[in-house]
Amino acid sequence: MNGFDFIFLFVALVTLVSAFKVVTAPKLIHAALWLIVALFGVAMTYVLLNAAFLAVVQVVVYIGAIAILMIFAIMLTRKVMEDTGPQMNPNWGWAAILGAAFFAGLTWLLLKSGAEGAALPSLAADFDPIVELGQQLVSPNAYVLPFEVASVLLLAALIGAIVVAWEK
Amino acid sequence: MINLSWYLIFAAALFSIGLYGVLSRKNAVAILMGIELMLNAININLVAFWRYQDPTVITGQVFAVIVFAVAAAEVAVGLALVISLYRRKNTVVANDINLLKW
Amino acid sequence: MSNPILQISQWFEGLLLGWGLAEGFVLVLMQAIGAFVVIMVGFTTVIALIWFERKLAGRLQDRLGPNRAGPYGLFQPFADIIKMFTKEDTTPAGADKVPFNIAPVLMVASVLFIWAVIPFAASVVGTDISVGVLYIVAVGSFGIVAALMAGWSSNNKFALLGAYRAVAQMVAYEVPMVLVLLIPVLLARSMNLSDIVNAQSTWFVVIAPLAALIFLISSMAEVGRAPFDLIEAESEIVAGFHTEYSGMKFGMFYVGEFLHVWTVGALISVLFLGGWNGPGVDTYPLLGVLYFFIKTFFGYFVISWIRLSVPRIRIDQMQAFNWKFLTPLALVILMVTAVLDKSLELAGVTSLGYTLAMLAANLVIGWITIEILKKIEPTKARQEFPHRPVAVAPKPTEN
Q1: DSSP notation for C347-372
Q2: Which of residues 24-63 of B touch A (CB under 8 A)?
Q3: Model pLDDT for residues C207-228, shown as the tens digit of each residue
Q4: Structure ipTM
Q5: How far apart are alpha carbons C290 and C345 in whole angstroms?
Q6: Does the beta carbon of A74 lie under 8 angstroms from any beta carbon of chain C?
């Protein structure tokens, strides 16, 4: 077990524990703060996978925008969701069983498929994923259409959010 | 020691936790948080597959970027809906809005 | 002895290896020492900055500033530090303790994170990552989280209002800031800060003056300094999100703010003023550190100067200024710069012609903006009073 493995296990453990806190914390604002930790853990996982650009974008988009929006929404709607009451559905037990079964099934499938044998391909020293990603995203032969559709989607979401939340 | 399956199991665990959150929580904002966890788990899978297959083929990262965009759009509209519901029906509990009408 | 810092680090690394330590451990240890040194440089600079800012504030407001502790009041910051440390550390009743205590640390950390990627000289840089500019934006969002945590966990309505204001302002001003950050990236063809510095044989402030101006304004708003200090407006919401903090926890917010301003100066220096570029850098690389600090100090001085000269704006003015002025302008200059850059490259002009064309384009955009602003009617929020001379006594009425 070398340093890299240790770092991965540490990051994975922190992420999973904070994710668990997200879904179980009795106070919603604490859930949102734990969500920030979990999202940061995912960003660290991207760093371990040599995807520095995605890691940074993860922090910008998820922590800088989405988590902040969540906290704002929680604060704005706090009056009706008093922190004392139960935050769980009555049938949360079934949800737990389903989640556990889902995890067990996925793990069984993964172990059966034999993916654990895949070796890590080495990255060329001069290969920078960000250059490749940038070119592919705007290249007509590659992903320019999904990229543009995504931007249209974002614009539509922007307008939609304003229209929906508009106080008449 | 760490290989592809570790990342995949990690992502599967994160996804299952998110699924549990979506199914068990009452508050609509908390449900959205669970959905975010699930999307993140999928992104980990995409990036792990990119890294462990051929890293010169960037498709996995492109997919992840698109997922980022979709997640941002989803949260913006979802939270706008929550705020709007709170204003009109004074509730953010998902069970109270099962009529799907005002 | 062209590069003492590199030589010292190599000598120290050799010493550690000579003691028989494992190579990986030495690598981690060297990185940790490097991070520690960078942080200590940051904190030490802040001590000097606090003295300088107070002295400057005094001079600009026609008074002396601190002059009791030591010559020219030089020991005033140390007296402040001792005061901060000895103050009682209070926690309000009903506070959410863990976020309450994490928030100040996160606030300082969000600024110190930026220092990891700033190139002080050609070879003196913490980590040379390929997404440096985006990294700066990313770690800035921790500051927003910290403000929100501090405001919420204090269990105080003024703190919560301050946090709302802080988040509204920081998130809003991030938009034009990110847009103009793309312009140095576009001109240098790289997000790596060292590459951006290397690309500035002509300073980017000459090629893109409007971008530099928008970056200055929006980062001042990010920091929350006057005229954008309505997130801690004393006359309205006591002290904003750090109302309930005292002692060293308040000190951390205070230090974080000064360090943030200094960091903004450093970013202006790196992105627009050529970083460590200057005469004689090729032969003496360490001279670059001096140039870098002079430019950074210039940026800091300008921000302090504006802070001490301009009154606070209202919250509606703050949002209107961002969304109706800065963001459209940033979008326009980004598009014009991109199109012009590509067409000049295709036309094959010399670097002097390129610079002049870019400068001309910026001046034209600036002129058009001013003309448009002149056309727009000023809002009628201000009430006009008839002129009344101050020093004349009112006429006695006959009754």
Answers
A1: HT--HHHHHHHHHHHHHHHHHHHHHH
A2: 24-27, 29-30, 32-34, 36-37, 40, 43-44, 47-48, 50-56, 58, 61-62
A3: 888 889 999 999 888 888 878 8
A4: 0.86
A5: 34
A6: no
